Every structure is written in C-alpha cells, then in structure tokens.
Amino acid sequence: MSGLRVNSFFLGNSSGVNFYISSNTIDKDTGKLQVSNCSGSKRAADWNLNVTPGVNTSKVTVSLARSLQMCLPNATDCCTTPLCVVEVLQVLACRDAVVLARLLIQAEIYANSSFMGNVSENASVIPNQVFQPLGSCPCDLTSGACDARCCCDPDCTPNVKQLFNGSCFPGVFGGDVNPPFDQLCSTQTTEYTPDWFPFLCVQSSLNNTPFLGYFYHGSISTPRVPSFKLPVQTSPGKLFTGYRQGDPIMTEDDEYFTIPQQSMVGQCVGDAPVAYLQDFEVKCLTDLASYREGLPHDVRINSGTGDFIQQNVIYRTIADTGKFVANSESLPATGVLCQNVTFAEHYTFLWEDENIEEVNVTVFLGSLCEGEILTQRFTAKFVGLNSDNAAELSCNPGYQVGKPVRAANMNASDTSGSLKIWQPAGRGLCASAADRPVLFGLDSFSGCVLEVDINEDCSLLRGNVTEKLNSLVQATHVGKRGNSNYSDLNDWVEIIRSPNVSVSPGNLKGMCPDIPANLNIRIIFADVGAVPGIPQEEILAVQISYSTVMWQFQCGLSCENTVSLLPITASVQFIEVPARPPIPMTRFQINYTEFDCNRNDVCWPQLFYPLTRFYSGEPYSQCLAKGLSLAFLVLLAAILNHPWFSKVWDNFLV
C-alpha cells in the first residue's frame, strides 16, 4: 500500500460477519506477527475501516485519516521524514468469535512533496477579448527572435523588417486581426458595389466590428418554437394528454426516462431517452474503470395521464459470465479489484391506447474485475394489453415505425404468414440461426453461412439455398396497414416475385455458377394522412428478387475432408414515395425566377421580412412601431416634396 486508501473484497455471504482492524500487529522484540482475536473496532490509530456489503461480495476499504504534509517550523500533525508512514495493518473477518479471513497490509507512504510556500498573488491579466484580441501577432512564433515575414513581430528591428517589408504575411496571421468588413461605408469600392450601398452601409469604428466589440447588442425576442421538454403536469392538474409514438417517456421529476442506447455513430449513450412504442435491443462495451450506473430503478414514470407508476424490478444473478465478459479465462487473482455491476436490463412496457399501464424490469447482476471487458445488454419492449402474442402489431390504422410488418398466406387454410430475416448466433451457421420479423421503416441486412462440400452438386446447392431464403418469406400478401383484416383482400397487397434467373450450364467440381445467395426485399410505402395528428403510413407494394453469385470451393494445402462456407444474405429496404404528386409549378414560377427565393440571391418577397412574425431579432411590437414610423416619414417626405404643398404653405403664411 502506497496511497491513502486501499480496497479489497470479502467473497461470500457477509451476513453476521464483523470486521475489525488493528495496527500493532508485529511484536517489536521478536518481529513476529501477533496472534489476534476477534476483538477491536473499525478504527485503529489513524486508520479507518469501511465495509460496503453486496451480493455475495463485500467491499473492504482501509483509509488513512491524517495529513501527509512535511513539517514546517512550529507545526504539528505532519511528517518529519520523507517516509512518513511505515506500518503493518491487519483486518479480521469474524463470525461468532471465529476468524473467517485475515488480510495483512504493509503500508509505506511518503509525504506529500507539493510546494508548501506562499503563492504570489500576481497573476497575468488577460484583456477583454471582446474588444482586444488575445494574440495580436499570430505569426510571432519564436520567443526572443525575429520571425521572417512577420512584420508585427516586436523582436524585429526596423533594419531587419526592410529585408521582407514587401512580402509580409497578409490577413489575420500577419497581425491584421481586425480588418475592415465589407458592410463598412469606408470600404466602398467602385467595382461590384450596388447603387443602394450608401443607403444601407454601416458607419462604425474599427473598435466595434464583427471581429471585435459588440457589433449588435440589442434586445432579442425569444422565438416561438416548441419547448425541448414536454409540458408534463402533476397529478392534481392531470393535463398530460398521453403519449404518441416517438414521444420521450417522462418521469415524476419532469425529466426524461433514460436507458443506454446506441447513437448514430455506433457509440453507446448512457442517458438516451426512451421513445414511446419504439422497441430496441443494444449491446454496450465497458470495463470497470468506465462503468457507470444508469437511472435508479425507484424512479416513477409518468403513465401519460399525469399519474405515476412504480417499476416492478426483479434482480437475478449471473452465474456463467462467459457470454458477457471477455478476458476472464481464470479466476481473478488476489488483490485484483472486482465490483458487482449490472450485466443486463430488460424493460417491458405494458401499454394501452396512449398510456403506460405497467413497467416490468429484469436486472441481471454479476461480478466484474479489472482487466475484463463487459458486454452489457439493454432491451426495451412495448407490449399491448390487448395483445395475445409476443409479436406486437400496430394499433393505429397505419403502420408504426419499429412494429412488425403483417403478412398473410392467402393460398393456405391458415392465412397467417410471416416475413422474417435472420438473426445469427454463435458461429453464424444457417442451421443454428434464429429469425426475427421484419420491422416497418427499419432497413435491415442479415445473413448466415452454409457449409458446402467440395463434391456438392450445383443443382442441389441451388435448391438448398433457395429453400433457406424462401423460408424467410412464408407469405403471398402483405398488409397495407397495421390493422389489415384477413377476411378483406383489399387490405392486402400481393408480393411481386421477380422471375428466376437463368442458370448457366456446367457442373465443375468445386465451382457452381448462378447461386441465388442474396434475397432482396423492397417495400414501397407512403404517408397517406394523419389520424389525431399521428402520420399514417401505408404499404403500396412489395417486391422480392434474388441476386446470384459464383461459388468456388476454397481450401488450404489440402482439400480432403474439409468444407467451404457459402454466405447467404437477406436485405430489407423501405422506399418512401409521395402519396400524391406534387403540385406542378405555374408558368409564372417557371419563367420569372427572380421571384423565387430558392434560386435567386435577391428575394423580393422578403423585402418586408423585418415586419413579419418570422423575424426574431427584436420584439414584434418594436418592429411594427419602427415600420409604421418609417412609413410615416416616407409619406411625409412625399407630401413635402409635392408642388401643391408649397402653395398651401405660402397661402397659410399670408
């Protein structure tokens, strides 16, 4: 032990076990360890003992409670020598006056060598970077020496500057950190300057520009945009109108209910909100150093009506950690830090209409040690109360993203069908691969591998691969909507199957052409409207096609008694098309492009943009008042310049 704290673990049931610490464990005369009994306390001299019980594991912490600073004149409670603490400690675990375990700790702790003198209060004063740049000469890279072509370098004498005076670094790097901007009236040039530039240019000093100073520090009105958080109300008001698909689930404290999920770049985000009616299953890699606990399970969840429901949590212990932990070929050695952590969390949300009725959580715990990599698993599944099976269907007329696509086999007595893709496990063989339903709106790509012998017949191989792929599509029709009725054929679209590809003749040993190894499922859908504000998606067509590959047996030095692997894949692609054709452009819109703000730099329809409610630079009332004042001045100027006004004014003076 060389620090202020050391941790160890007591493996086993700690119920009824007492822990003691003692410091005088070595006989000074004989130098032998003294026989200790189960008596003492959790404090010995300057040492404290703290025990954190857990599931079959208790964390034992021994810490030093004294100062390690070197002694100054007339100081106490300090270290007189650099080697401040040299002691042997003994921690006992006893039950009914019987010693169950003994831990010996040899502590050699050196004094803190940090500076103990008075620190000067003189600090560098950094100027306000709003009005003065922190680096006025960026090209000054060498301290105490003149940098070539750096005319702002204070180390360059006038004689030296004459050598490169005509080739100084331009722009900000050369020291011009506050150049005149294009809108400044003094920068007007005769070339490429519009006629209205003197009317709209800016009169400002170089101390107040877009580069330095508060170029515009007026009042800003808050734009009227939807709040980032939902307006959740407490139970007395009950103004919360329920969840819609994709809405984040809220907690009692008006915060998001979070479960670790994968981001768009594949990394795990620990505080990702859970979206209503969107199932997910993620795996996150972590180790003991970066492990972090998630949201506590005692947090109550807003049901959708303003009421709050408690999570039903079941804790289980992982006995076989081989499926979760890597680099754990042997038991952890003595002294290796281990901790009881969460291996997996499975959430099941029972819902009805727009409300959550119940939340069931299963938490799997296990021991994780230093040097091990843990694959955490987190799943969330929404199950309707009116559902009789595990495959949850859309409750709305249209499909919901993440819900299974409905399929039917109209040629069989049992019209229920299936549309699935593989979910390989283990070695990825097709014989052991599981499957899962195709989820609406989620493009998928999966596959498995077949073991093929060198003497495989090509015709039989094509038939075997085709049979494997056809097992994923046990249907002739796909439901247009999530609530399609099996008895109404108009609620279903027939699956379009592309014709089989032609097979090349020939049957060479170890080589087979035109193997249909890729299954392509294309689903065309459209947004056909909204029901209570929720967009309704409808499937318009489904096409299935096959892509062929050339299979060739691959082996090493010897091809006898070996097999080759043939990968076969299945892909699902969702293609959205407009339900209604876009409104065609008029002849005026086609010919007069100067009125199109998307194709022209000058946008005349936005001439009075500051007077519209889309402008958020100032409060709308101030913009309206300034606009009316400007209109009044323009009208007054027009009246004063009219000839009849001078006649009226002359008659009035007479």
Structural commentary:
The chain is mainly beta and 654 residues long. It contains six helices and 27 strands. 9% of the residues lie in helices and 31% in strands. A hairpin with a 2-residue loop joins strand 15 and strand 16. It starts with a strand and ends with a helix. InterPro entries: TCTN1-3 (IPR040354), TCTN1-3_dom (IPR011677), TCTN1-3_N (IPR057724). Part of the tectonic-like complex (also named B9 complex). It comes from Alectura lathami. One of its GO terms (biological process) is protein localization to ciliary transition zone.
Q: What percentage of amino acids are in beta strands?
A: 25-35%
Largest sheet: 7 strands, mixed
Q: How much helical structure, as a percent, in the residues?
A: under 10%
Summed over residues and divided by their number, the pLDDT gives a mean of: 79
Protein structure class: mainly beta
**What is the rounded distance between the termini?**
109 Å
- Low-confidence segments, given as residue ranges, are 227-239, 388-393
> What spatial order of strands do you see in the largest sheet?
18-23-24-26-25-27-21
User: Count of helical segments?
Assistant: 6
Shape: extended
Number of domains: 5
Subunit structure: Part of the tectonic-like complex (also named B9 complex).
GO biological process, one term: protein localization to ciliary transition zone
Family: Belongs to the tectonic family.
Protein name: TECT2 protein
Fold blueprint:
Blueprint: E1 5-11, E2 18-22, E3 43-44, E4 47-52, E5 57-64, E6 83-95, E7 98-110, H1 158-161, H2 197-200, E8 261-262, E9 268-269, E10 280-286, E11 301-302, E12 308-309, E13 312-317, E14 325-326, E15 338-352, E16 355-369, E17 373-384, E18 407-408, E19 418-423, E20 434-437, E21 444-453, H3 458-470, E22 473-474, E23 477-479, E24 492-497, E25 511-531, E26 534-552, E27 563-576, H4 587-591, H5 620-640, H6 643-653
Parallel strand pairs: 13-16, 15-17, 24-26, 25-27
Antiparallel strand pairs: 1-5, 2-6, 3-4, 4-5, 6-7, 8-9, 10-17, 11-12, 14-17, 15-16, 18-23, 19-20, 19-22, 21-27, 23-24, 25-26
Pfam families: DUF1619_N (PF25752), TCTN_DUF1619 (PF07773)
Domain Tectonic-1-3: 241-383, 398-577
Family: Belongs to the tectonic family.
